[in-house]
Amino acid sequence: MGIKMKVRKSSSKTVSKTVACLAADMLQQSKSYTVSKHTTFLQHCDYKKIKCACEETTVISYTLTKMKPVQINTMKMRIVNLFTSSNIRFYSNGQKNIYNVLVVGGGIVGFATARALLLRNKHLRVGLVEKENRPSVHQSGHNSGVIHAGIYYKPGSMRAKMCVEGLYKTYEYCAKNNIPYKKCGKLIVATEESQIKSLNDLYERGLENGTPDIKLINGNDIKTIEPYCNGVRAIHSPHTGIVDWAVVTKQYAIDFASLGGQIIYNFKVKSFDECKHNKALKIISEKNNVVLADYVITCGGLQSDKLSLMTGCKADPYILPIRGEYLLLGKEKAHLIKGNIYPVPDSSLPFLGVHFTPRMDGSVFLGPNAVLALKQEGYSWSDVSISNTIRLLKLDGVQKLMAKHMKFGINETIKSVFPAKQLKEIQNYIPDIKKNDIKNGPTGVRAQPLWADGTMAEDLVLDIASNDPSDLVKHRIMHCRSAPSPSATSSLPIGEVIVDKMFEKYPNLNHIPN
Ligand SMILES: Cc1cc2nc3c(=O)[nH]c(=O)nc-3n(C[C@H](O)[C@H](O)[C@H](O)COP(=O)(O)OP(=O)(O)OC[C@H]3O[C@@H](n4cnc5c(N)ncnc54)[C@H](O)[C@@H]3O)c2cc1C
What we know:
The protein is α+β, with helices and mostly antiparallel strands. It is 35% helix and 20% strand.
Protein backbone atom coordinates (compact mmCIF):
# COMPACT_ATOMS: atom_id res chain seq x y z
CA MET A 1 0.00 0.00 0.00
CA GLY A 2 1.79 3.06 -1.30
CA ILE A 3 0.44 6.01 0.60
CA LYS A 4 1.84 6.93 3.95
CA MET A 5 0.45 9.47 6.31
CA LYS A 6 2.58 11.23 8.87
CA VAL A 7 0.94 13.41 11.47
CA ARG A 8 3.65 15.73 12.60
CA LYS A 9 3.44 16.68 16.26
CA SER A 10 5.01 20.03 15.35
CA SER A 11 2.32 20.76 12.81
CA SER A 12 -0.13 21.52 15.57
CA LYS A 13 -3.21 19.71 16.82
CA THR A 14 -5.30 21.17 14.05
CA VAL A 15 -3.38 19.22 11.44
CA SER A 16 -3.78 15.85 13.06
CA LYS A 17 -7.41 16.66 13.75
CA THR A 18 -7.83 17.54 10.10
CA VAL A 19 -6.37 14.20 9.13
CA ALA A 20 -8.67 12.53 11.58
CA CYS A 21 -11.62 14.36 10.11
CA LEU A 22 -10.60 13.45 6.61
CA ALA A 23 -10.29 9.82 7.51
CA ALA A 24 -13.60 9.82 9.32
CA ASP A 25 -15.15 11.68 6.43
CA MET A 26 -13.86 9.11 3.98
CA LEU A 27 -15.14 6.30 6.03
CA GLN A 28 -18.55 7.79 6.24
CA GLN A 29 -18.47 7.79 2.44
CA SER A 30 -19.36 11.44 2.50
CA LYS A 31 -19.54 13.00 -0.94
CA SER A 32 -19.00 16.59 0.11
CA TYR A 33 -16.26 18.06 2.17
CA THR A 34 -17.01 21.10 4.26
CA VAL A 35 -15.43 22.68 7.27
CA SER A 36 -18.64 22.54 9.26
CA LYS A 37 -18.92 18.81 8.58
CA HIS A 38 -15.43 18.41 9.95
CA THR A 39 -16.38 20.16 13.10
CA THR A 40 -19.29 17.77 13.52
CA PHE A 41 -16.99 14.84 12.94
CA LEU A 42 -14.59 16.16 15.47
CA GLN A 43 -17.34 16.12 18.02
CA HIS A 44 -18.57 12.63 17.21
CA CYS A 45 -15.75 10.59 15.85
CA ASP A 46 -13.64 8.35 17.95
CA TYR A 47 -10.71 10.67 17.56
CA LYS A 48 -8.22 8.49 19.38
CA LYS A 49 -8.85 5.52 17.09
CA ILE A 50 -8.55 7.57 13.93
CA LYS A 51 -5.39 9.28 15.11
CA CYS A 52 -3.94 5.93 15.97
CA ALA A 53 -4.79 4.67 12.51
CA CYS A 54 -3.21 7.67 10.90
CA GLU A 55 -0.03 7.23 12.87
CA GLU A 56 0.11 3.53 12.26
CA THR A 57 -0.21 3.80 8.53
CA THR A 58 1.97 6.92 8.50
CA VAL A 59 1.78 8.91 5.39
CA ILE A 60 1.45 12.62 4.63
CA SER A 61 4.72 14.30 3.98
CA TYR A 62 3.48 17.85 3.86
CA THR A 63 1.50 20.01 6.20
CA LEU A 64 -2.22 19.91 5.68
CA THR A 65 -2.67 23.47 6.83
CA LYS A 66 -0.73 24.60 3.81
CA MET A 67 -2.81 22.60 1.36
CA LYS A 68 -5.23 24.10 -1.11
CA PRO A 69 -8.79 22.67 -1.29
CA VAL A 70 -7.97 20.79 -4.46
CA GLN A 71 -4.98 19.14 -2.76
CA ILE A 72 -7.15 18.25 0.19
CA ASN A 73 -9.57 16.58 -2.18
CA THR A 74 -6.76 14.54 -3.70
CA MET A 75 -5.63 13.58 -0.23
CA LYS A 76 -9.19 12.59 0.55
CA MET A 77 -9.20 10.18 -2.38
CA ARG A 78 -5.89 8.72 -1.34
CA ILE A 79 -7.14 8.09 2.17
CA VAL A 80 -10.26 6.44 0.77
CA ASN A 81 -8.06 4.09 -1.22
CA LEU A 82 -5.89 3.41 1.74
CA PHE A 83 -8.73 2.43 4.00
CA THR A 84 -10.83 0.53 1.46
CA SER A 85 -7.87 -1.49 0.25
CA SER A 86 -6.97 -2.48 3.78
CA ASN A 87 -10.51 -3.85 4.33
CA ILE A 88 -10.66 -2.10 7.64
CA ARG A 89 -13.06 0.60 8.59
CA PHE A 90 -12.99 3.00 11.48
CA TYR A 91 -16.17 4.32 12.90
CA SER A 92 -17.46 7.28 14.78
CA ASN A 93 -19.12 6.42 18.08
CA GLY A 94 -22.60 7.41 16.96
CA GLN A 95 -22.50 5.47 13.69
CA LYS A 96 -25.02 2.64 13.45
CA ASN A 97 -25.45 -0.47 11.34
CA ILE A 98 -21.92 -0.67 9.97
CA TYR A 99 -19.67 -3.22 11.58
CA ASN A 100 -16.29 -4.85 11.32
CA VAL A 101 -18.00 -8.11 12.24
CA LEU A 102 -21.67 -8.98 12.34
CA VAL A 103 -22.85 -12.04 14.28
CA VAL A 104 -26.13 -13.61 13.16
CA GLY A 105 -28.05 -15.44 15.89
CA GLY A 106 -28.79 -14.45 19.46
CA GLY A 107 -28.57 -17.85 21.09
CA ILE A 108 -25.88 -18.81 23.59
CA VAL A 109 -23.32 -19.59 20.85
CA GLY A 110 -23.91 -16.30 18.99
CA PHE A 111 -23.60 -14.19 22.13
CA ALA A 112 -20.58 -16.15 23.41
CA THR A 113 -18.91 -15.51 20.04
CA ALA A 114 -19.85 -11.83 19.89
CA ARG A 115 -18.54 -11.30 23.41
CA ALA A 116 -15.32 -13.21 22.66
CA LEU A 117 -14.70 -11.04 19.56
CA LEU A 118 -14.69 -7.90 21.67
CA LEU A 119 -12.64 -9.48 24.43
CA ARG A 120 -10.06 -10.41 21.77
CA ASN A 121 -9.99 -6.94 20.22
CA LYS A 122 -11.92 -4.22 21.98
CA HIS A 123 -11.52 -1.87 19.01
CA LEU A 124 -13.65 -4.00 16.73
CA ARG A 125 -17.08 -2.73 15.94
CA VAL A 126 -19.32 -5.75 16.42
CA GLY A 127 -23.06 -6.09 15.87
CA LEU A 128 -25.41 -9.00 16.50
CA VAL A 129 -28.73 -9.53 14.74
CA GLU A 130 -31.41 -11.89 16.00
CA LYS A 131 -34.73 -12.64 14.34
CA GLU A 132 -36.67 -12.88 17.59
CA ASN A 133 -37.34 -10.03 20.01
CA ARG A 134 -35.01 -11.29 22.76
CA PRO A 135 -32.09 -13.67 23.32
CA SER A 136 -32.32 -17.47 23.63
CA VAL A 137 -35.84 -17.98 22.27
CA HIS A 138 -34.88 -21.35 20.75
CA GLN A 139 -32.44 -24.05 21.89
CA SER A 140 -30.66 -21.85 24.42
CA GLY A 141 -33.91 -21.21 26.26
CA HIS A 142 -35.44 -24.68 25.85
CA ASN A 143 -33.09 -27.25 27.26
CA SER A 144 -32.45 -29.44 30.30
CA GLY A 145 -30.35 -26.81 32.06
CA VAL A 146 -27.54 -29.20 32.88
CA ILE A 147 -23.89 -28.17 33.19
CA HIS A 148 -22.35 -31.31 31.72
CA ALA A 149 -18.99 -32.71 32.81
CA GLY A 150 -17.86 -34.31 29.52
CA ILE A 151 -18.21 -38.03 30.26
CA TYR A 152 -19.85 -39.22 27.05
CA TYR A 153 -17.86 -37.77 24.20
CA LYS A 154 -15.18 -39.34 22.01
CA PRO A 155 -11.83 -38.93 23.78
CA GLY A 156 -9.57 -36.41 22.08
CA SER A 157 -12.46 -34.76 20.21
CA MET A 158 -13.02 -31.02 20.41
CA ARG A 159 -16.46 -31.83 21.75
CA ALA A 160 -15.01 -33.66 24.75
CA LYS A 161 -12.33 -31.03 25.40
CA MET A 162 -14.69 -28.08 25.07
CA CYS A 163 -17.24 -29.67 27.39
CA VAL A 164 -14.78 -30.22 30.26
CA GLU A 165 -13.28 -26.76 29.74
CA GLY A 166 -16.80 -25.34 29.52
CA LEU A 167 -17.72 -26.94 32.85
CA TYR A 168 -14.94 -25.10 34.69
CA LYS A 169 -15.50 -21.86 32.80
CA THR A 170 -19.25 -21.91 33.42
CA TYR A 171 -18.86 -22.23 37.18
CA GLU A 172 -16.25 -19.48 37.21
CA TYR A 173 -18.44 -17.24 35.04
CA CYS A 174 -21.59 -17.85 37.09
CA ALA A 175 -19.76 -17.15 40.35
CA LYS A 176 -18.28 -13.93 38.98
CA ASN A 177 -21.62 -12.69 37.66
CA ASN A 178 -23.83 -13.85 40.53
CA ILE A 179 -25.78 -16.26 38.34
CA PRO A 180 -27.49 -18.90 40.50
CA TYR A 181 -26.43 -22.49 39.87
CA LYS A 182 -26.33 -25.75 41.81
CA LYS A 183 -23.54 -28.29 41.73
CA CYS A 184 -26.00 -31.05 42.53
CA GLY A 185 -24.03 -33.87 40.88
CA LYS A 186 -25.15 -36.67 38.62
CA LEU A 187 -25.55 -40.43 38.65
CA ILE A 188 -25.47 -42.56 35.49
CA VAL A 189 -27.29 -45.62 36.71
CA ALA A 190 -27.21 -49.24 35.52
CA THR A 191 -30.43 -50.90 36.62
CA GLU A 192 -29.42 -54.33 35.27
CA GLU A 193 -26.24 -56.40 35.33
CA SER A 194 -26.29 -56.45 31.50
CA GLN A 195 -25.59 -52.69 31.46
CA ILE A 196 -22.47 -52.87 33.62
CA LYS A 197 -19.99 -53.39 30.79
CA SER A 198 -21.29 -50.28 29.00
CA LEU A 199 -21.20 -48.38 32.30
CA ASN A 200 -17.58 -49.37 32.90
CA ASP A 201 -16.63 -48.36 29.35
CA LEU A 202 -18.30 -45.03 29.90
CA TYR A 203 -16.39 -44.56 33.15
CA GLU A 204 -13.08 -45.18 31.32
CA ARG A 205 -14.13 -42.68 28.71
CA GLY A 206 -14.91 -40.08 31.37
CA LEU A 207 -11.46 -40.62 32.91
CA GLU A 208 -9.83 -40.18 29.50
CA ASN A 209 -11.77 -37.00 28.94
CA GLY A 210 -10.64 -35.55 32.25
CA THR A 211 -14.11 -35.40 33.82
CA PRO A 212 -13.25 -34.37 37.36
CA ASP A 213 -13.61 -36.70 40.37
CA ILE A 214 -15.89 -39.34 38.81
CA LYS A 215 -16.30 -42.59 40.73
CA LEU A 216 -17.89 -45.97 40.14
CA ILE A 217 -20.26 -46.79 42.99
CA ASN A 218 -22.43 -49.79 43.93
CA GLY A 219 -26.15 -50.11 44.69
CA ASN A 220 -25.81 -49.15 48.39
CA ASP A 221 -23.81 -46.04 47.57
CA ILE A 222 -26.47 -45.03 45.05
CA LYS A 223 -28.97 -44.91 47.94
CA THR A 224 -26.77 -42.56 49.96
CA ILE A 225 -26.80 -40.06 47.09
CA GLU A 226 -30.29 -40.70 45.66
CA PRO A 227 -32.32 -42.49 48.37
CA TYR A 228 -35.28 -43.20 46.05
CA CYS A 229 -33.30 -44.49 43.09
CA ASN A 230 -32.87 -48.17 42.16
CA GLY A 231 -29.69 -49.37 40.55
CA VAL A 232 -26.97 -51.98 40.70
CA ARG A 233 -24.03 -49.77 39.83
CA ALA A 234 -23.49 -46.16 38.83
CA ILE A 235 -21.01 -43.51 37.81
CA HIS A 236 -21.09 -40.57 40.20
CA SER A 237 -20.07 -37.22 38.73
CA PRO A 238 -20.06 -34.75 41.64
CA HIS A 239 -19.28 -31.67 39.52
CA THR A 240 -22.22 -31.94 37.13
CA GLY A 241 -24.64 -29.13 37.90
CA ILE A 242 -27.67 -27.15 36.84
CA VAL A 243 -28.22 -23.56 35.72
CA ASP A 244 -30.75 -21.63 33.67
CA TRP A 245 -28.95 -21.27 30.34
CA ALA A 246 -31.28 -18.44 29.29
CA VAL A 247 -29.97 -16.43 32.25
CA VAL A 248 -26.39 -17.20 31.22
CA THR A 249 -27.13 -16.10 27.62
CA LYS A 250 -28.66 -12.86 28.89
CA GLN A 251 -25.51 -12.15 30.87
CA TYR A 252 -23.34 -12.77 27.77
CA ALA A 253 -25.57 -10.23 25.98
CA ILE A 254 -25.05 -7.73 28.80
CA ASP A 255 -21.26 -8.26 28.62
CA PHE A 256 -21.35 -7.81 24.86
CA ALA A 257 -23.32 -4.58 25.05
CA SER A 258 -21.14 -3.20 27.82
CA LEU A 259 -18.04 -3.90 25.70
CA GLY A 260 -19.58 -1.69 22.99
CA GLY A 261 -21.42 -4.35 20.94
CA GLN A 262 -24.72 -3.44 19.31
CA ILE A 263 -27.70 -5.81 19.35
CA ILE A 264 -30.52 -5.63 16.83
CA TYR A 265 -33.56 -7.81 17.55
CA ASN A 266 -36.41 -8.54 15.10
CA PHE A 267 -33.91 -8.74 12.27
CA LYS A 268 -34.36 -11.97 10.34
CA VAL A 269 -31.58 -12.33 7.78
CA LYS A 270 -33.08 -12.98 4.37
CA SER A 271 -30.00 -12.67 2.16
CA PHE A 272 -26.40 -11.52 1.88
CA ASP A 273 -25.10 -9.32 -0.88
CA GLU A 274 -22.05 -7.30 -1.79
CA CYS A 275 -22.06 -3.54 -1.43
CA LYS A 276 -19.79 -2.76 -4.40
CA HIS A 277 -19.53 0.91 -3.50
CA ASN A 278 -17.45 0.34 -0.37
CA LYS A 279 -16.43 -3.31 -0.57
CA ALA A 280 -18.63 -4.32 2.34
CA LEU A 281 -21.13 -7.08 2.89
CA LYS A 282 -24.77 -6.14 2.84
CA ILE A 283 -26.94 -8.12 5.23
CA ILE A 284 -30.60 -7.79 4.31
CA SER A 285 -33.51 -8.61 6.59
CA GLU A 286 -36.94 -9.93 5.69
CA LYS A 287 -38.28 -6.39 6.20
CA ASN A 288 -35.56 -5.15 3.80
CA ASN A 289 -33.56 -3.40 6.50
CA VAL A 290 -29.86 -3.42 5.76
CA VAL A 291 -26.71 -3.51 7.85
CA LEU A 292 -23.18 -3.47 6.46
CA ALA A 293 -20.23 -5.45 7.71
CA ASP A 294 -16.73 -6.43 6.67
CA TYR A 295 -17.14 -9.98 7.98
CA VAL A 296 -20.03 -12.11 9.19
CA ILE A 297 -20.23 -15.16 11.40
CA THR A 298 -23.56 -16.98 11.55
CA CYS A 299 -24.59 -18.97 14.63
CA GLY A 300 -28.10 -19.84 13.50
CA GLY A 301 -28.74 -23.07 15.45
CA LEU A 302 -31.74 -24.77 13.84
CA GLN A 303 -31.44 -22.49 10.79
CA SER A 304 -27.71 -22.86 10.28
CA ASP A 305 -28.00 -24.97 7.08
CA LYS A 306 -30.37 -22.42 5.54
CA LEU A 307 -28.02 -19.54 6.37
CA SER A 308 -25.10 -21.48 4.85
CA LEU A 309 -27.00 -22.10 1.62
CA MET A 310 -27.56 -18.32 1.31
CA THR A 311 -23.83 -17.86 0.64
CA GLY A 312 -23.36 -20.88 -1.63
CA CYS A 313 -22.01 -23.41 0.88
CA LYS A 314 -22.65 -27.08 0.19
CA ALA A 315 -25.89 -28.56 1.43
CA ASP A 316 -24.61 -30.68 4.32
CA PRO A 317 -24.48 -30.94 7.22
CA TYR A 318 -28.25 -30.62 7.16
CA ILE A 319 -30.02 -29.69 10.33
CA LEU A 320 -32.57 -32.22 11.50
CA PRO A 321 -34.95 -30.67 14.03
CA ILE A 322 -35.37 -33.21 16.82
CA ARG A 323 -38.04 -32.33 19.37
CA GLY A 324 -37.58 -33.34 22.97
CA GLU A 325 -40.75 -33.40 25.07
CA TYR A 326 -40.40 -33.26 28.83
CA LEU A 327 -42.73 -34.50 31.50
CA LEU A 328 -43.05 -32.51 34.68
CA LEU A 329 -42.92 -34.18 38.10
CA GLY A 330 -45.57 -32.92 40.54
CA LYS A 331 -44.21 -30.59 43.25
CA GLU A 332 -45.19 -32.96 46.06
CA LYS A 333 -42.83 -35.60 44.57
CA ALA A 334 -39.97 -33.26 43.67
CA HIS A 335 -38.12 -34.34 46.86
CA LEU A 336 -37.60 -37.79 45.28
CA ILE A 337 -34.92 -36.33 43.02
CA LYS A 338 -31.79 -34.83 44.61
CA GLY A 339 -29.50 -34.44 41.61
CA ASN A 340 -29.35 -35.47 37.95
CA ILE A 341 -30.15 -39.13 37.30
CA TYR A 342 -29.34 -40.56 33.86
CA PRO A 343 -29.61 -44.00 32.28
CA VAL A 344 -26.72 -45.82 30.63
CA PRO A 345 -27.01 -44.40 27.10
CA ASP A 346 -27.24 -46.31 23.84
CA SER A 347 -23.92 -45.30 22.28
CA SER A 348 -25.33 -45.51 18.73
CA LEU A 349 -27.75 -42.65 19.45
CA PRO A 350 -26.97 -38.97 20.03
CA PHE A 351 -29.44 -38.79 22.92
CA LEU A 352 -28.75 -39.46 26.55
CA GLY A 353 -32.03 -41.23 27.27
CA VAL A 354 -34.85 -40.30 29.66
CA HIS A 355 -33.28 -38.48 32.58
CA PHE A 356 -34.40 -36.83 35.79
CA THR A 357 -33.34 -33.20 35.97
CA PRO A 358 -33.90 -30.88 38.92
CA ARG A 359 -34.40 -27.29 37.76
CA MET A 360 -33.27 -24.03 39.25
CA ASP A 361 -36.91 -23.09 39.98
CA GLY A 362 -37.40 -26.23 42.11
CA SER A 363 -39.35 -28.21 39.51
CA VAL A 364 -38.17 -31.54 38.08
CA PHE A 365 -38.09 -32.45 34.38
CA LEU A 366 -38.38 -36.05 33.26
CA GLY A 367 -37.25 -36.93 29.76
CA PRO A 368 -36.99 -35.71 27.10
CA ASN A 369 -37.94 -38.15 24.37
CA ALA A 370 -36.71 -37.50 20.81
CA VAL A 371 -39.04 -37.18 17.80
CA LEU A 372 -38.58 -35.60 14.39
CA ALA A 373 -40.13 -32.11 14.54
CA LEU A 374 -42.25 -31.28 11.51
CA LYS A 375 -40.79 -27.77 11.34
CA GLN A 376 -37.31 -26.37 12.12
CA GLU A 377 -38.74 -24.62 15.16
CA GLY A 378 -41.65 -27.01 15.66
CA TYR A 379 -42.44 -27.20 19.37
CA SER A 380 -45.58 -29.36 19.00
CA TRP A 381 -47.22 -31.76 16.53
CA SER A 382 -49.34 -28.87 15.25
CA ASP A 383 -46.25 -26.85 14.23
CA VAL A 384 -45.91 -28.15 10.70
CA SER A 385 -44.06 -27.02 7.61
CA ILE A 386 -44.99 -29.50 4.89
CA SER A 387 -42.38 -28.17 2.45
CA ASN A 388 -39.59 -28.37 5.04
CA THR A 389 -40.59 -31.88 6.12
CA ILE A 390 -40.72 -33.09 2.51
CA ARG A 391 -37.33 -31.44 1.86
CA LEU A 392 -35.83 -33.30 4.83
CA LEU A 393 -37.44 -36.64 4.07
CA LYS A 394 -36.15 -36.54 0.50
CA LEU A 395 -32.55 -36.23 1.67
CA ASP A 396 -30.46 -39.36 1.30
CA GLY A 397 -28.79 -38.91 4.67
CA VAL A 398 -32.12 -38.55 6.47
CA GLN A 399 -33.50 -41.67 4.79
CA LYS A 400 -30.41 -43.65 5.80
CA LEU A 401 -30.66 -42.42 9.36
CA MET A 402 -34.35 -43.24 9.58
CA ALA A 403 -33.81 -46.72 8.17
CA LYS A 404 -31.06 -47.34 10.74
CA HIS A 405 -33.07 -46.10 13.72
CA MET A 406 -36.60 -47.01 12.60
CA LYS A 407 -37.49 -48.94 15.79
CA PHE A 408 -36.19 -46.19 18.06
CA GLY A 409 -38.08 -43.53 16.07
CA ILE A 410 -41.39 -45.41 16.25
CA ASN A 411 -41.01 -46.00 20.01
CA GLU A 412 -40.25 -42.36 20.67
CA THR A 413 -43.24 -41.26 18.58
CA ILE A 414 -45.53 -43.60 20.51
CA LYS A 415 -44.20 -42.17 23.79
CA SER A 416 -44.87 -38.70 22.44
CA VAL A 417 -48.49 -39.45 21.62
CA PHE A 418 -49.03 -41.46 24.82
CA PRO A 419 -46.79 -39.87 27.48
CA ALA A 420 -47.91 -42.41 30.09
CA LYS A 421 -45.89 -45.01 28.13
CA GLN A 422 -42.77 -43.39 29.58
CA LEU A 423 -43.91 -44.23 33.09
CA LYS A 424 -42.49 -47.76 33.03
CA GLU A 425 -39.07 -46.44 32.07
CA ILE A 426 -39.28 -43.81 34.82
CA GLN A 427 -40.31 -46.35 37.47
CA ASN A 428 -37.31 -48.49 36.58
CA TYR A 429 -35.26 -45.87 38.38
CA ILE A 430 -37.72 -44.25 40.82
CA PRO A 431 -40.58 -46.67 41.61
CA ASP A 432 -42.29 -44.12 43.89
CA ILE A 433 -43.31 -41.97 40.91
CA LYS A 434 -46.91 -42.82 39.99
CA LYS A 435 -49.08 -42.00 36.98
CA ASN A 436 -50.78 -39.05 38.71
CA ASP A 437 -47.44 -37.49 39.64
CA ILE A 438 -46.52 -36.60 36.08
CA LYS A 439 -47.95 -34.23 33.51
CA ASN A 440 -46.86 -32.84 30.16
CA GLY A 441 -44.09 -30.30 30.42
CA PRO A 442 -42.32 -27.97 27.99
CA THR A 443 -40.59 -28.99 24.77
CA GLY A 444 -37.32 -28.06 23.10
CA VAL A 445 -36.06 -28.63 19.56
CA ARG A 446 -32.47 -29.73 19.04
CA ALA A 447 -30.46 -28.90 15.92
CA GLN A 448 -29.03 -32.30 14.95
CA PRO A 449 -26.42 -31.87 12.21
CA LEU A 450 -26.36 -34.70 9.70
CA TRP A 451 -23.87 -35.40 6.93
CA ALA A 452 -25.12 -36.45 3.49
CA ASP A 453 -24.08 -40.08 4.17
CA GLY A 454 -26.44 -40.29 7.14
CA THR A 455 -23.82 -39.96 9.89
CA MET A 456 -24.21 -37.33 12.57
CA ALA A 457 -21.75 -34.46 12.77
CA GLU A 458 -20.18 -34.83 16.19
CA ASP A 459 -17.79 -31.91 16.36
CA LEU A 460 -17.76 -28.19 15.71
CA VAL A 461 -18.26 -27.52 11.97
CA LEU A 462 -17.30 -24.10 10.57
CA ASP A 463 -17.84 -23.47 6.87
CA ILE A 464 -16.91 -20.81 4.31
CA ALA A 465 -18.20 -21.14 0.72
CA SER A 466 -15.03 -20.05 -1.09
CA ASN A 467 -11.38 -19.20 -0.58
CA ASP A 468 -11.48 -16.57 -3.32
CA PRO A 469 -11.14 -13.18 -1.55
CA SER A 470 -12.65 -11.35 -4.51
CA ASP A 471 -16.02 -13.00 -3.83
CA LEU A 472 -17.02 -11.14 -0.71
CA VAL A 473 -20.20 -13.05 0.07
CA LYS A 474 -18.66 -16.48 -0.35
CA HIS A 475 -15.35 -15.62 1.28
CA ARG A 476 -16.13 -13.29 4.16
CA ILE A 477 -19.06 -15.11 5.73
CA MET A 478 -18.25 -17.95 8.07
CA HIS A 479 -21.00 -20.27 9.28
CA CYS A 480 -21.10 -22.24 12.48
CA ARG A 481 -23.00 -25.21 11.05
CA SER A 482 -22.72 -27.45 14.03
CA ALA A 483 -22.17 -26.43 17.61
CA PRO A 484 -22.19 -29.90 19.12
CA SER A 485 -24.38 -30.44 22.13
CA PRO A 486 -23.89 -29.78 24.98
CA SER A 487 -23.02 -26.45 23.44
CA ALA A 488 -24.61 -24.46 26.24
CA THR A 489 -22.03 -25.97 28.62
CA SER A 490 -19.30 -25.55 26.00
CA SER A 491 -20.41 -22.09 24.86
CA LEU A 492 -17.47 -20.11 26.29
CA PRO A 493 -14.80 -22.37 24.68
CA ILE A 494 -16.86 -22.58 21.45
CA GLY A 495 -16.97 -18.77 21.24
CA GLU A 496 -13.19 -18.62 21.71
CA VAL A 497 -12.52 -21.30 19.09
CA ILE A 498 -14.75 -19.53 16.55
CA VAL A 499 -12.91 -16.25 17.21
CA ASP A 500 -9.53 -18.03 16.82
CA LYS A 501 -10.66 -19.35 13.45
CA MET A 502 -11.94 -15.94 12.34
CA PHE A 503 -8.73 -14.15 13.28
CA GLU A 504 -6.73 -16.86 11.54
CA LYS A 505 -8.85 -16.71 8.39
CA TYR A 506 -9.23 -12.92 8.34
CA PRO A 507 -5.98 -11.54 9.78
CA ASN A 508 -7.20 -8.00 9.08
CA LEU A 509 -9.21 -8.30 12.27
CA ASN A 510 -5.93 -8.13 14.21
CA HIS A 511 -5.05 -4.82 12.62
CA ILE A 512 -7.76 -2.68 14.08
CA PRO A 513 -5.64 -0.38 16.24
CA ASN A 514 -5.16 -1.27 19.85
C1 LIG B 1 -34.12 -30.45 24.50
C2 LIG B 1 -32.72 -29.97 24.62
C3 LIG B 1 -31.99 -30.20 25.79
C4 LIG B 1 -30.69 -29.75 25.92
N1 LIG B 1 -30.04 -29.87 27.11
C5 LIG B 1 -28.82 -29.30 27.28
C6 LIG B 1 -28.19 -29.28 28.54
O1 LIG B 1 -28.76 -29.72 29.54
N2 LIG B 1 -26.96 -28.73 28.67
C7 LIG B 1 -26.30 -28.20 27.59
O2 LIG B 1 -25.17 -27.74 27.74
N3 LIG B 1 -26.89 -28.18 26.37
C8 LIG B 1 -28.13 -28.69 26.20
N4 LIG B 1 -28.75 -28.63 24.98
C9 LIG B 1 -28.03 -28.07 23.85
C10 LIG B 1 -28.01 -26.55 23.88
O3 LIG B 1 -29.20 -26.01 24.38
C11 LIG B 1 -27.76 -26.04 22.48
O4 LIG B 1 -26.68 -26.76 21.91
C12 LIG B 1 -27.43 -24.55 22.44
O5 LIG B 1 -28.44 -23.82 23.12
C13 LIG B 1 -27.29 -24.09 21.01
O6 LIG B 1 -27.15 -22.70 21.01
P1 LIG B 1 -27.16 -21.90 19.63
O7 LIG B 1 -26.86 -20.49 19.94
O8 LIG B 1 -26.29 -22.61 18.67
O9 LIG B 1 -28.63 -22.09 19.06
P2 LIG B 1 -29.97 -21.32 19.40
O10 LIG B 1 -30.15 -21.10 20.84
O11 LIG B 1 -31.05 -22.07 18.71
O12 LIG B 1 -29.77 -19.91 18.72
C14 LIG B 1 -29.76 -19.68 17.34
C15 LIG B 1 -30.39 -18.32 17.11
O13 LIG B 1 -30.26 -17.94 15.75
C16 LIG B 1 -31.41 -17.19 15.40
N5 LIG B 1 -31.55 -17.19 13.95
C17 LIG B 1 -31.71 -18.27 13.15
N6 LIG B 1 -31.84 -17.87 11.87
C18 LIG B 1 -31.75 -16.53 11.86
C19 LIG B 1 -31.83 -15.55 10.84
N7 LIG B 1 -32.06 -15.89 9.56
N8 LIG B 1 -31.69 -14.24 11.17
C20 LIG B 1 -31.47 -13.88 12.47
N9 LIG B 1 -31.42 -14.77 13.48
C21 LIG B 1 -31.55 -16.07 13.19
C22 LIG B 1 -32.53 -17.95 16.10
O14 LIG B 1 -33.69 -17.18 16.25
C23 LIG B 1 -31.88 -18.33 17.42
O15 LIG B 1 -32.16 -17.40 18.44
C24 LIG B 1 -30.07 -29.07 24.83
C25 LIG B 1 -30.79 -28.83 23.66
C26 LIG B 1 -32.11 -29.24 23.56
C27 LIG B 1 -32.88 -28.87 22.34
